[in-house]
Amino acid sequence: MYMAEHEAAGVKVHANILLKKINVNEENEMQSLEFTDGSTLEADFVIMATGVVPATKILEGTDIEMGSRG
């Protein structure tokens, strides 16, 4: 759901790929990203996220409908 919302707003999402290196210039400012598959991407900033499981145990037994992962 979150990925679809971001993509609908024009954000390019790169999922299931590993970052190898952040390349910087002489002023230590980010220039590009290098990935383990050999591809590179120019970038001004990066938002990195990892998967999480919501802490919803407190809601068990309530009328709030949840999926198998909370």
Write structural notes for this entry.
The chain is an alpha+beta fold and 70 residues long. The chain is 10% helix and 21% strand. Strand 2 (30-35) and strand 3 (40-42) form a beta hairpin. The chain has one helix spanning 2-8, and strands spanning 19-24, 30-35, 40-42. The longest helix is centred in the first third of the chain and has 7 residues, at 2-8. The protein has a three-stranded antiparallel sheet, with no helix packed on it. The chain has a domain at 2-49: FAD/NAD(P)-binding domain.
Descriptive keywords:
single chain, alpha+beta, FAD/NAD(P)-binding domain, 3 strands
Describe this structure in a few short sentences.
Helix content is 10%, strand content 21%. The chain is built from 1 helix and 3 strands.
Helices, strands, pairings?
Elements: H1 2-8, E1 19-24, E2 30-35, E3 40-42
Antiparallel strand pairs: 1-2, 2-3
Main β sheet profile = 3 strands, antiparallel
Number of helices: 1
Mean pLDDT: 87
Structural Rg: 18 Å
Shape: elongated
Percent range for β-strand residues: 15-25%
**N-to-C SSE series?**
HEEE
Which structural class best describes the helix and strand composition? alpha+beta
Under CATH at level 1, the class of the domain at 2-49 stands as Alpha Beta
Please, what is the CATH homologous superfamily of the domain at 2-49? FAD/NAD(P)-binding domain
CATH domain fold name of the domain at 2-49:
FAD/NAD(P)-binding domain
Number of strands: 3
Name given to the CATH architecture of the domain at 2-49 = 3-Layer(bba) Sandwich
- Which strand order spans the largest sheet, edge to edge or round the barrel? 1-2-3
Low-confidence stretches: none
